[in-house]
């Protein structure tokens, strides 16, 4: 919808479909080994989000230096997308929905403000950096990087740019979030 509103032309580079089976079984095995090893290292080091970040950064370095090729077959991606969906769904409990209903005006206003701020940043990318509007929108859109990855993988956008921006945002939040939360918690009084 965003692409049509901002007038993205229908002509895009054609992405090849992800194959059902791994194209290179050795690369697929290395990819699985990297994911498992990264998660193991993260758990041993007790790093929050390390299970995501360590394999992510290691795969970037290894692939960019030519030491490894990431190979993810379609069935693995589909399974990963299903697991992400199954993780999100059960979080919506009745007490959470009741609380959200009471706070709905604040939630809607905050959401619209966040979307507007991200849209302004995306417009800046389009105007000043020459990024196509859909890529700019996905790179700056709020929400989880997992859902952005799913959308980017199924559309004709500059996926490396989108994921780099999303991961940069994630790293900034991980580095600054705890300090910001402590700062805000020390300034806000709990209700009587």
TrEMBL record:
Transmembrane segments: 25-42, 49-66, 110-131
Keywords of the record: Membrane, Transmembrane, Transmembrane helix
InterPro entries: AbrB_dup, AbrB_fam
Pfam families from the UniProt entry: AbrB
NCBIfam families: Gneg_AbrB_dup
Protein known as: AbrB family transcriptional regulator
Species name: Roseomonas alba
């Amino acid at each position: 919808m965003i692409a049509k509103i901002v007038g993205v032309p229908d002509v895009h580079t054609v992405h090849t479909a992800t194959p059902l089976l791994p194209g290179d079984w050795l690369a697929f095995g290395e990819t699985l080994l990297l994911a498992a090893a990264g998660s193991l290292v993260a758990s041993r080091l007790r790093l929050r989000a390390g299970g995501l970040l360590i394999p992510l950064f290691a795969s970037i370095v290894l692939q960019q230096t030519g030491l490894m090729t990431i190979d993810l077959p379609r069935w693995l991606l589909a399974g990963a997308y299903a697991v992400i969906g199954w993780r999100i769904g059960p979080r919506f409990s009745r007490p959470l929905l009741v609380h959200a209903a009471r706070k709905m005006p604040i939630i809607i206003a905050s959401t619209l403000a966040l979307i507007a701020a991200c849209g302004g940043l995306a417009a800046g990318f389009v105007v000043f950096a020459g990024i196509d509007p859909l890529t700019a929108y996905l790179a700056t859109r709020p929400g989880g990087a997992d859902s952005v990855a799913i959308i980017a993988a199924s559309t004709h956008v500059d996926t490396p740019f989108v994921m780099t921006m999303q991961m940069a945002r994630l790293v900034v939040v991980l580095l600054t979030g705890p300090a910001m939360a402590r700062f805000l918690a020390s300034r806000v009084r709990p209700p009587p």
